[in-house]
Amino acid sequence: MKEYAAFPYSPARAAYAAKALADYGIIGDGSNRTVGDFDLSRVQRVLDIVRPVFAAQRQPLPDTLTPGDLVTNAYVDPTVSAR
Q: Which long-range contacts (CB under 8 A, 24 or more apart) does 18-21 make?
């Protein structure tokens, strides 16, 4: 068991946390069977939402900014799945 400053983190506590994260939908696969990859269409939707916010703050995002400029799936192992 490893001690962290706040409390002991036992294997049982870790198993409970992992199950709770999955049960409550906090972690899981997206539309495919890979954990941790980016859905570029969702990243684009975020850009669409924040673009006017930044513009209103006089900090406009470049018109050419794309999801691929911000995120990559190049280092994600597609064989890792929550299912």
A: none
